[in-house]
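Record 1 of the preview.
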Amino acid sequence: MPAMASTSAHAALEIEISGGSAQQIPIAIVPFGQAAGSTQEKIGDIIAADLRRSGLFRILETGGVASRPTEVSQVKYAEWAVLQAQAITVGNVTALPGNRLKVMFGLADVLKQNQLVSMEYNIAPGQLRLTAHKIADVIYQKLTGEGPIFASRIAYINKSKNRFSLQVADADGMNAQTVVSSSEPIISPAWSPDGSKIAYVSFEKKKPIIFVQSLTTGQRLTLANFKGNNSAPAWSPDGTKLAIVLSHSANSQLYTINADGTGLKQVTKSNAIDTEPVWSPDAKWIYFTSDRGGNPQVYKVSAFGGDAQRVTFQGDHNLSPRFAPDGKSLAMVRKDGAKYSIALQDLVNGQVRLLSEGNQDESPSFAPNGRVILYATRVGGRGALAAVSSDGRVKQRLSESGGDVREPSWGPLLN
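->
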């Protein structure tokens, strides 16, 4: 039976990182000052782990430096220049009345000896980890020029002991919680654009039905329970509609439906199997997988219906398209022979690059900044999650002990 809300915590996903940028930014993250006897999480460690995982930073060992500045004004730049630090992060956490915390942090350029940014947060104790992720995002943006990524969540399906559960976790694999669980399969989780809801397909009624569930209240809506199969929900960019796949009239075809379950409209009308819809960021197009040409390939059709146009031409099969947030490239699963890999197609020049090395890779999903692609793979006969940077340099593997993890979906940034 489904749970009504995020309920029980599970073991965190373990993350292995390989590769990295050719030119990593050396940064010193000084342990944040905290009140004596504090049991709060070490916020500097969370920031360091986020930056290290990006592959773009080299976290310097600070144990040999005598001074422990907690404000940029206290930094003795010569000490940190010896470590060849390019940047330094300092901060502190202090208690406020009403069981609140004040988190202050500063980022400085060691070579130029000036402050780059300083910020202050007034938070509840339970927001400390999220605040650490937000600080890591500020540092990441300031030093790389790229958009934020760490203060976000991922969703995935975990199968354990013949029970399926839809899990939501922080982007670093921590804080995993169960949204819904069932003895029948759960597939195709899809985040609403504001991150407040997840659409998914459950077989709990012995047939595929699409549900939309609130992550704050646990309340859920039966979005599509038509005759035949109801599958592959995909939110429109403004969150008012979903593209879905129904087989109630014949073969699987694309439809759009309002987020409250009203206003069903057919989009494709073909004799083929049309499935796996995804909206373009401008909401004008729906890209999808179809075998109308003989083999599964990616096509696009106006969101209001009409003639479809083929998009992919390389490889035996191309399926499961996913847009980069900027709309300039498309991740997909490409089949060559018996091997399924994650590929990235530049939608401007048409160039295609293979990014993953597994044989059974599937379900690509972009990070909010488009820098990383999360996907499902197979390790030791079980499903695991993996991630690769969009340039292919940095690879991560995320695994949960005892579980079979699949169908990842990367959610939007948290406020």
